Fold this sequence. Notes:
By secondary structure, chain A is an alpha+beta fold. The first copy, chain A, has helices at 21-30, 111-120, 122-148, 151-166, 182-189, 193-205, 221-228; strands at residues 32-36, 41-43, 52-65, 71-77, 82-83, 97-109, 167-170, 173-176, 209-212, 215-218. The interface between A and B is large, with 38 and 38 residues.
Amino acid sequence: MAPPLDPAVLRGMPLFAGLDADAMAEAVALARPRRHARGAAVFTQGEAAAAGHALIDGRVKIVQTGPDGQQVVMRFIGPGEMFGTLAIFTDGLYPADAVAVADSVELSWPAAAMTDLMERHPVIVRNALSIVGGRLREVQHRLREVATERVERRVAHALLRLVRQAGRRVETGVEIDFPLSRQDVAEMTGTTLHTVSRTLSAWESQGIVESGRQQVVIRKPHALVAIAEDLPPLRSGD
Amino acid sequence: MAPPLDPAVLRGMPLFAGLDADAMAEAVALARPRRHARGAAVFTQGEAAAAGHALIDGRVKIVQTGPDGQQVVMRFIGPGEMFGTLAIFTDGLYPADAVAVADSVELSWPAAAMTDLMERHPVIVRNALSIVGGRLREVQHRLREVATERVERRVAHALLRLVRQAGRRVETGVEIDFPLSRQDVAEMTGTTLHTVSRTLSAWESQGIVESGRQQVVIRKPHALVAIAEDLPPLRSGD
DNA sequence: CGACAGGTTGAAAACTATCAAACATTGTGG
DNA sequence: CCACAATGTTTGATAGTTTTCAACCTGTCG
């Protein structure tokens, strides 16, 4: 029933780095592919977890919801990235929602399969450790940002991160390559969509960004860096 | 030169869970013990890292410093906990300062020794993965708090976490068992020492806490939980 | 005893959230 | 194809938190 999968999809995935071709094939064979239309949930907070997901194509948003319904966007996942793996190492429940923000294709491994793979190929465990370690660092960095910086700088940082992760050159600058609402940015930075809107409006009038409905183009990345780093604003034209 | 170390110090350390006695002894033999007086730095942000530290006794504060000097307390380490291990899995530099807030005794493993241990005893890698995974979850939780809750609730949460981690029963309630300044609490919660001081003063006048110089006793944990969870304040005397 | 680190408190200023209303764009069903 | 609902965005006004600035207090330690 399963459509034939090209083992090459795992190439370049950090989790499987260092595996030989046979092991890759084995890993692919154990994975279950799925499609998710834009807006669909890949999994839901609190649900019992599969053991791991890898995004092949599209974009997925990881959102954590608090007891009072407040939402925080933990991160956006792009092609080649793993997600939803944290549950395996803890209580087996997803700690957040994953929602496709663009039409997406994803692979997932049942818990037993992943455990098995890890046992047979210890390098996967090492890889996982380094991935989770890197992510811990990232989140600590964001925690510091949210705890110490004001909204404008946080929004600048968030956009710069998105540019790095999903930036695409266009004529007028660099575009963030998936639908991104003001609300999304607000939930990434711990503020409200109103404040994000005002911030972007101000930047727009300074020619730093161009933005519209769920879409942002950075025209002067340099200026955004200056804001993020709290440097004196630049004079000249870039 | 090294004083003889009792292998039992590693008992109960999650990183070494599941190791047999021989392996434990091996691990202890490779560790280097050190004392740190209150206020001394165990290591410093940016410094090249040893591979791991374990606290035997005392209390250590992990503080990350931003480019403009803003500090954030990432966590407090108690006896039996590992710290400073994140560097191994990333770039080999400590991402934060570690400062002894009480006289402390610590073990550390040179990078080569730890790598060696992990290679010989894969269960250590598994343990590390689960520890780092758990910590990632914790930090994500705090990120949500800082991003969505107001100061009073954040301070309540922070104190409750400290009570869980280092609470000691005393006549009037539960005391946080190490020196903790207003500034520390501020850096844990992303606010200023002034606001923390005002918050604690208010709670003191409601009989919820008793606090003095670098010392906090929670008299009504229940009331603090109510604040943290944003429940209606309690009437009766508990 | 004096210096100092830690703590408290008032007043003013700065941010940001909240409330409210209007506008724009997209997609859909008639 | 158009009207309209739904969603996303903008902006003004106001209110509320929290920071900032300043001054003062208190116990500790050398």
